[in-house]
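Duplicate of #3305? Posting structure anyway:
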């Protein structure tokens, strides 16, 4: 199997759509699989076999319904017979166009494949894996994979709040204990001025975010969850250094202190 990685282009669009109030339209059915003899990276690049006889990118419209932030190709993917030597195929990329366009995902093959004249390159159903994990909540990851690959639009949030937790929930939004009482209230952190103009799929808060002065002990804050207007989990994470908040303390995020990695 091949596990695909999100490109810088799509990381940036993800942050824009989800956190910075800048919508990114679904590619629709314009999702194409490309073959490479030199592997691309997050910024793109690599060596696609664009000039080889018999080669074109293959449109891929069938992906399994995402679950726990994971999807795979539903059907076999078959290229035309090679009209000449294509060389040693080392990796694949997913683009939003049959030629040119923007790299969305990429990954190295688990085993390289030499394609000579008359050979046919084939990827079996289920052999391309895409998983969004790390800071992603499962529900958001499922929706975003469907937005990019399955022509099922995910409407951008209209508001995002940062909630504080003494026990951080898991990606399924289970098992968490949010701070409560003592004048606690989640704080808005949404829009183009709330998150920095990222370059590599990692973004951080632009401004200081200040919570109400505690009127009782909040306990030890160990992590956070970003939630949309429907209270759905977007991203979550642990504090590098937990902080105990006592009566009359003020909890705040300094500018740049809240990092979200979209990779």
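Output from current build:
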């Amino acid at each position: 199997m091949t596990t695909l990685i999100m490109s810088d282009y799509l990381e940036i669009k993800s942050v824009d759509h989800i956190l910075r109030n800048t919508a990114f339209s679904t590619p629709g059915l314009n999702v194409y699989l490309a073959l490479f003899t030199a592997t691309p990276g997050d910024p793109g690049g690599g060596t696609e076999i664009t000039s080889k006889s018999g080669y074109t990118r293959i449109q891929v419209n069938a992906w399994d319904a995402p679950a726990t932030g994971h999807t795979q190709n539903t059907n076999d993917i078959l290229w035309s017979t090679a009209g000449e030597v294509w060389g040693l195929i080392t990796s694949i990329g997913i683009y939003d166009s049959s030629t040119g366009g923007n790299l969305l995902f990429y990954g190295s093959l688990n085993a390289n494949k030499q394609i000579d004249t008359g050979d046919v390159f084939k990827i079996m159903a289920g052999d391309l894996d895409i998983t969004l994990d790390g800071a992603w909540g499962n529900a958001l990851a499922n929706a975003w994979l469907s937005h990019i690959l399955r022509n099922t639009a995910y409407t951008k949030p209209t508001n995002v709040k940062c909630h504080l937790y003494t026990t951080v929930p898991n990606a399924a939004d289970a098992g968490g204990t949010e701070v409560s009482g003592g004048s606690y209230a989640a704080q808005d952190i949404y829009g183009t001025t709330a998150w920095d103009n990222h370059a590599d799929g990692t973004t951080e808060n632009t401004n200081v975010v200040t919570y109400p002065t505690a009127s009782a002990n909040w306990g030890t804050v160990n992590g956070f969850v970003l939630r949309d207007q429907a209270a759905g989990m977007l991203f979550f994470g642990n504090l590098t250094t937990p902080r105990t908040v006592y009566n009359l303390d003020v909890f705040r995020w300094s500018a740049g202190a809240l990092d979200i990695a979209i990779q």
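Confirmed duplicate; merging threads. The chain has a mean pLDDT of 96. The chain is about 10% helix and 35% strand.
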